[in-house]
Design a protein that fits this description.
The protein folds into two domains: 80 residues, Beta-grasp domain (Ubiquitin-like (UB roll), Roll), CATH 3.10.20; 79 residues, DNA polymerase, domain 1 (Orthogonal Bundle), CATH 1.10.150.120. The protein has five helices and five strands, in the order ββαβββαααα. It binds FE2/S2 (inorganic) cluster (2 copies).
Length: 170
Amino acid sequence: MKHLSRDSRHPVSFELNGRVVEGFSEPRMLLCDFLRHEIGATGTHVGCEHGVCGACTILIDGKASRSCLMLAVQADGTEIHTIEGLTRPDGSFGILQQAFHENFALQCGFCTPGILMSLSEFLKDNPDPSVEEIKVALSGNICRCTGYTEIINACLDAAAALRASKAEAV
Ligand code: FES
Ligand code: FES
């Protein structure tokens, strides 16, 4: 088996949830794998690895993006937010996480990080969404076990809590 020398890997650095992180990546390494295996940010899940399930969704420069469809080297210099960044500094749930908890909006939880990141972008632009708008926002995220009713209810609750608190972060 051929081993890559350190010289064949590229330095990659970006801001992750407000903190600069650095590592080395093979040119072909996916961003989701870099996050999980190089940085240790395992909150981002990997399902289909070809852009279908949405489990790997993160925010790159504020936009919900599939981290399995991007190479780690392409993320150099970007600003990334992942599920780890939704938790408050004291370890308590953020608004969106709390709403999911209270509505039983997850079962196995595999899809949840991707859904929360998709909705965190969505709620920033749509603070008072309709059910139909939430369904469209969730159309890129597959959940195999909860059913979407509780997820939609959680999103409605999170939107109401955000409006009430006038908070920007979910
Ligand atoms: S793992 Fe990226 S979309 Fe499924
Ligand atoms: S909670 Fe299991 S896939 Fe969504």
